[in-house]
């Protein structure tokens, strides 16, 4: 049985919530291991992974149940483009900061991104 549009949308938002949770856990880990500045950088890295996914989800599911297939495809493509641009923009903005801990930022980004890839194991319909 195919999942409904509502189930797909809820799963996407659960995944984004899980990514934010992973980002928070990474922040706590870096706070314990390396201090406040590394923790802040880790949080930023995690949010760089999670926030563009939220933007994508908002656009991708806009016309999932209503509108034409062309509207849904266009919305999906716009969401994907915005996700990429937002990710690049957030990385540029954060890396311009003087006190960013790059290793914490990138580690948290990668771990939070991996949480997205593991979704197939956790969100079965």
Unreliable stretches covering 5 or more consecutive residues: none
* SS content category: mainly alpha
**Biggest sheet statistics:** none
Global geometry: flat
What is the CA-based Rg, rounded? Answer: 16 Å
Tell me briefly what this model is:
The protein is an all-alpha fold and 125 residues long. The protein contains five helices and no strands. The model has no long low-confidence stretch (mean pLDDT 89).
Which descriptors apply to this entry?
125 residues; mainly alpha; 5 helices
Structural commentary:
The chain is mainly α and 125 residues long. The chain is built from 5 helices and no strands. The protein has helices at 5-34, 36-60, 69-95, 102-117, 119-122. The protein is flat and about 50 Å long. The mean pLDDT is 89.
Which SSEs are present, and which pair or pack?
Elements: H1 5-34, H2 36-60, H3 69-95, H4 102-117, H5 119-122
């Amino acid at each position: 049985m195919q999942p409904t549009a509502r189930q797909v949308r809820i799963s996407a938002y659960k995944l984004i919530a899980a990514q934010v949770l992973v980002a928070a856990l990474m922040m706590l880990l870096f706070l314990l291991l390396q201090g406040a500045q590394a923790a802040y950088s880790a949080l930023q890295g995690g949010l760089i992974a999670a926030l563009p996914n939220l933007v994508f989800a908002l656009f991708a599911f806009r016309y999932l149940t209503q509108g034409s297939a062309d509207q849904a495809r266009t919305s999906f493509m716009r969401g994907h483009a915005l996700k990429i641009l937002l990710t690049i923009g957030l990385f540029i903005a954060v890396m311009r900061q003087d006190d960013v801990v790059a290793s914490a930022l990138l580690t948290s980004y990668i771990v939070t991104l991996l949480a997205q890839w593991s979704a197939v194991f956790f969100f079965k319909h």
